[in-house]
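ESCALATION

Customer reports they have been waiting on this structure for their group meeting. Please prioritize. Original submission:
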Amino acid sequence: MVGELHRLPHLVELPARGIGADLIGRAGALLVDITIDTVPRGYRVAAGRSAVTRRAASLLAEDIDALEEAWEKAGLRGAQRTIKVQAPGPITLAAHLELSGGHRAITDPGAVRDLARSLAEGVAAHRAEVARRLECHVVVQFDEPSLPAALAGRLTGVSSLSPVHPVDEPVAAALLDECAAVVGGEVALHSCSGGLPWPMLGRSALRAVSFDLSTLTAADLDGVGEFVESGRVVMLGVVPTAAPGNRPSAEEVSGLVVDFTDRLGFPRASLPDRVGVTPTCGMAGATPQWARTAIELAQKAADAIADDPAAILK
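Update from on-call: job pushed to the front of the queue and completed.
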């Protein structure tokens, strides 16, 4: 998984510059037997198939058609390459979809379970379609930028009289594990938010976690280390998602990675199999030029780590 995941652009870049409309709206194309519609605050579960859901499905179909054409022209069919597809995770989806009464879906345990089941079935079908049409290996990423806030009870209700209570960790873990089991194959979780529940993630069925390295605190280090030591993968977000004033070099990017892993005490020889290199978050808000540059930087840094991690200078 690590050998390919950091090298590939996203099939559908769902997250924009945070928890934006694209993240939730385009999920409407993936949900099974649940449709969504727009409301002033964002999106709401709808009765019947809405124009918003039809539009989301149409856009996703266009994306897959365009990718298949580009894949064919590049001669990549059957070339043992990997594609990553992504969608909002069950917690973030329930946190940002409204029910008919205007409350967040996450306030209704039954609605949360239904959404998670629908999402998992839809993503599993999406993964299978991409694998079939491109004849490639497909990994799935669930974006969970709202997971820390949901666990900590920081989500706001529609009024001060309707608070959103914290989600219990066992409930969140069960939802994530159910989605991973239904989707099958390799499943990763991504979050740009700080405060990830590393002990919970360590007990989960997830094969990888992708995060913005700058959000880590000293309290997170043991959890990250234990996650990697369990034989799984961390994808370190170290490449800016928007063009910085001073563009980093690939050597600087790979240096950030080994500096972090050296502090954790990982032997550098294990890095190619346990650590990936990515942009800090989604690239939908980047210019096309910087998106290409960021992917190139991540690839070059990852290649350097794979070729000779011991030679990288911090």
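Sent to customer with the following note: Residues 1-19 have pLDDT under 50 and may be disordered.
Escalation resolved.
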